[in-house]
Amino acid sequence: MKIAIGSDHAGFRLKERIKDFLRAKGHEVIDFGTRSEASTHYPLFAKEVALAVQRGDAHRGILICGTGIGMSITANKFKGVRAALCLNEYMARMSRLHNDANVLCLGGRVLGEDLALSIVEVWLETHFEGGRHQKRIDLIAEVEREHL
Description:
alpha/beta
């Protein structure tokens, strides 16, 4: 799977670890930065990852900032992007099963590395359930058409 990834300075270390984890699992990773722990602005990186997912240049995206909140807010401004802030494996599983989330948001300052990697693994391995949940995804798309 091709995965776009991005972080701000607060998520940089975790991003680097997740990149290694993804590559070890055989995924192709497109890194949109940041490239260091120097202070920067999370919307710049959320935009690039969201656009890559929106255009189909990546199958899914992962964004990391201090809490994951800012990345989630920004990524969800893009039509067709369903970004989910996940703090545990259950949230990751449900974001895929019921919401077909295509961008995972994580908090580099609120998650330990082992938990974050477990969340990523569950999120990547879980497939959208469809069925009654597809109607809900269709309703989200309708809201996007009307208001974005």
